[in-house]
């Protein structure tokens, strides 16, 4: 038996990834920019075991659904093909945050899986290749391989399914003196998966081409604002990206927002009018995440927590890269380096 355990953290995108290229391999249609979150983690253990007849996958203590099984197996099969490992695997994954918290557990989940499976199979892989592997499970997971501020570029419109596309760090954890407040508004699971919502957006929305044209500009401006440590501009562009993504999904009949989502977004705008550096974003669910300066975090948190319908507020600072905590490290050939400072 060979065994490894990895820990990875979720991330929140401010320049949103929404939509895939029309080619196999799970390539994003637009670039995205996110921050990895400390304090919340997925811990995934992978054991290759010759006595197993099939991969055994448990998520949060329960057997994986058919859809999750298929995606986890896809990642395991890629690791087996790239290494000398032929045995089936036992995969056990746990989140220390609620799956319905509005934090993408798929991001930390597939990042931890890619890392643990590669290490258990003794696969020599660079961070770029590990990130590419995580992307095959869930594109946002490519970003959770790295800490701090991370970009994932769009895939080319056409090409080979095996083309490598990994994320990379563009700025360290302390690039902005800011943190993220996750406002949880329901414990119910979301109704449409991001996968289905994206497919429907590309197929039905009259705004799809406008999104493909505008999202890269938002991303480029945000990256420049981040390099300039301009929290205000990063936050404003982040709100614009989230609203464009939701407008796109809505125009395809996919509604993730609820009344509370809109309520919180307008409360954040009111706080801003009062001088707070606070900016809202929201993903494929109704929860709202607020990027806020460290100086304003306490006061903004108190206001958000007191709003009826907010179940709880989770505070997360920018966090570190995914890592191996048991077993041998996969790769280690690159530096998870920083481009801007
Ligand atoms: O990687 P997925 O399929 O979980 O999609 C993530 C999509 C958003 O969270 C809405 C945006 C993003 O860039 O993370």
What best-fitting shape do the alpha-carbon axes yield? globular
Question: What is the subunit organization of this protein?
Answer: single chain
Just give the CATH class of the largest domain.
Answer: Alpha Beta
What ligands does this structure carry? (3R)-3-hydroxy-3-methyl-5-(phosphonooxy)pentanoic acid
Strand order of the biggest β-sheet: 6-5-7-4-1-14
Helix content: 25-40%
Biggest pleated-sheet summary: 6 strands, mixed
- Low-confidence regions: 331-341
How much of the sequence lies in strands comes to 15-25%
Radius of gyration: 19 Å
Summarize the structure.
By secondary structure, the protein is of the alpha+beta class.
Please supply descriptive tags for the structure shown above.
341 residues, alpha+beta, Ribosomal Protein S5, domain 2, Alpha-Beta Plaits, 2 domains, six-stranded mixed beta sheet, four-stranded antiparallel beta sheet, 14 strands, 37% helix, globular, binds (3R)-3-hydroxy-3-methyl-5-(phosphonooxy)pentanoic acid
């Amino acid at each position: 038996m060979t065994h490894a355990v990895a820990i990875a953290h979720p991330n929140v995108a401010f320049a949103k990834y929404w939509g895939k290229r029309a080619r196999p391999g799970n390539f994003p249609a637009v670039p995205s920019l996110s921050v990895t979150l400390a304090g919340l983690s997925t811990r995934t253990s992978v054991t290759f075991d010759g006595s197993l007849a099939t991969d055994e996958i448990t998520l949060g203590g329960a057997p994986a659904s058919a859809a999750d099984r298929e995606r986890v197996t896809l990642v395991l099969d890629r690791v087996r093909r790239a290494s000398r490992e032929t045995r089936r695997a036992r995969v056990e994954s746990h989140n220390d945050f609620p799956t319905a918290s509005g934090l993408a557990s798929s991001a930390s989940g597939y990042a931890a899986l890619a890392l643990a499976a590669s290490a258990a199979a003794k696969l020599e892989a660079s961070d770029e290749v590990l990130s590419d592997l995580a992307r095959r499970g869930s594109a946002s997971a490519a970003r959770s391989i790295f800490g701090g501020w991370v970009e994932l570029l769009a895939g080319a419109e056409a090409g080979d399914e095996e083309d490598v596309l990994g994320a990379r760090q563009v700025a360290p954890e302390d690039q902005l003196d800011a943190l993220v407040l996750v406002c949880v508004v329901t414990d119910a699971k979301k109704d449409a998966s991001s996968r289905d919502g994206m497919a429907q957006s590309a197929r039905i929305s009259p705004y799809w081409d406008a999104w493909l044209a505008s999202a890269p500009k938002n991303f480029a401006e945000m990256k420049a604002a981040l390099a300039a440590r301009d929290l205000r501009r990063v936050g404003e562009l982040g709100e614009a990206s989230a609203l464009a993504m939701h407008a796109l999904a809505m125009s395809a009949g996919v509604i993730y927002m609820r009344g509370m989502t809109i309520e919180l977004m307008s409360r954040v705008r009111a706080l801003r009018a009062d001088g707070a550096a606070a900016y809202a974003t929201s993903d494929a669910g109704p929860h709202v995440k607020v990027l806020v300066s460290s100086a304003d975090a306490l006061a903004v948190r108190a206001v958000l927590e007191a709003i009826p319908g907010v179940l709880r507020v989770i505070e997360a600072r920018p966090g570190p890269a995914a890592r191996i905590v048991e077993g041998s490290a996969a790769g280690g050939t690159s530096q998870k380096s920083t481009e801007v400072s």
